[in-house]
């Protein structure tokens, strides 16, 4: 646990001063008395996994028993979300979630075994980042317009990799292809790490992947970045244009991460975990670690995050329906 005065200062900076004394009181009542399981819907080595592990390490003082990070892959993150939704609402199972689980999958998948609006308790929004459209070096394209021109000369749709079926990365690439009038065929992997490996291995020429697993390969020239998905350029890739600059005006697509618990998680547990996340995200070393991976720390407390997820269900749900992609 952080010393009382510095901790209060950090929480005040994040708009949480009224809650500053809740976590110590709760700790005295026994939580957390054992390791907390954190479910992740993608494989080790991707952006989700990297972010969760950075935060878990930074929260060590508030969680002396530690975390058991479980990468439960499959069905675009639905397996992890279903497991979390069905877990006891006692604070010992948390889900590292994103827009795919909470907004896109319910539209894309015919059968989703959970209700994103009613089966979870919002705890905190923690970070956001762009995904990157990348190609192998032999692809004759340096922006999205050139990619579309090349793709239109090919007899078959262009294979592209993403971290998960139904992810923002997947849907974002489908939207780009529709806007620019070329054909793609999606191949989903169980995380950004495996998707990056597939492109490096020549299994497919194109990818839509979060920044963390890509950065070393982009720097070494093994892959070429055509665009970042956000409305502004990334400090980590300042020479890479945004989607709008690269050929799709008006389009901006950010990936975000948050933490939720099963519906009915006690309010005092929600406050404790949320405050611990706020304190971790306020640490300069955490911001530096996240920034080096292309992520921006962005904390939202429970009520704000809950409202944000409701907005995301509307906006991404609309985009998913417009893309006309359905997954069995």
Automatic annotation (TrEMBL):
Signal peptide: 1-27
CDD domains: PBP2_Bug_TTT
Tagged with keyword NAD: no
This protein's UniProt keywords: Signal
Family annotation (InterPro entries): BUG, Bug_dom1, TAT_signal
Pfam families per the UniProt record, alphabetical: TctC
PANTHER family: BLR1237 PROTEIN, TRICARBOXYLATE-BINDING PROTEIN
Similarity remark: Belongs to the UPF0065 (bug) family.
Protein name: Tripartite tricarboxylate transporter substrate binding protein
Source lineage: Bacteria, Pseudomonadati, Pseudomonadota, Alphaproteobacteria, Acetobacterales
């Amino acid at each position: 646990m952080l010393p009382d005065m510095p901790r209060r200062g950090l929480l005040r900076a994040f708009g949480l001063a009224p809650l500053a004394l809740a976590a110590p009181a709760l700790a005295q009542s026994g939580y957390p008395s054992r390791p907390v399981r954190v479910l992740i819907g993608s494989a080790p080595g991707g952006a989700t996994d990297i972010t969760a592990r950075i935060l878990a390490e930074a929260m060590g003082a508030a969680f002396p028993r530690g975390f058991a990070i479980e990468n439960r892959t499959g069905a675009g993150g639905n397996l992890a979300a279903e497991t979390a939704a069905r877990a006891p609402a006692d604070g010992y199972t948390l889900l590292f979630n994103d827009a795919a689980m909470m907004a896109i999958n319910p539209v894309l998948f015919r059968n989703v075994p959970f209700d994103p609006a009613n089966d979870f308790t919002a705890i905190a929004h923690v970070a956001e980042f762009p995904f990157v459209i990348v190609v192998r070096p032999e692809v004759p394209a340096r922006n999205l317009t050139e990619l579309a021109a090349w793709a239109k000369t090919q007899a078959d749709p262009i294979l592209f990799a993403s971290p998960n079926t139904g992810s923002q990365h997947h849907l974002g690439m489908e939207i780009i292809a529709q806007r620019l009038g070329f054909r793609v065929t999606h191949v989903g992997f169980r995380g950004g790490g495996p998707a990056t490996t597939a492109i490096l291995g020549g299994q497919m020429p194109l990818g839509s992947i979060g920044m963390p697993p890509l950065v070393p390969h982009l720097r070494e020239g093994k892959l070429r970045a055509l665009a970042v998905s956000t409305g502004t350029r990334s400090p980590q890739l300042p020479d890479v244009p945004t989607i709008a600059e690269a050929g799709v005006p008006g389009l901006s697509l950010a990936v975000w991460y948050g933490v939720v618990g099963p519906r009915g998680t006690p309010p005092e547990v929600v406050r404790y975990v949320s405050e611990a996340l706020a304190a971790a995200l306020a640490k300069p070393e955490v911001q530096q670690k996240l920034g080096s991976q292309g992520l921006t720390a962005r904390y939202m407390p429970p009520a704000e995050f809950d409202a944000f997820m409701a907005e995301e269900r509307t906006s991404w749900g609309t985009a998913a329906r417009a893309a006309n992609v359905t997954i069995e």
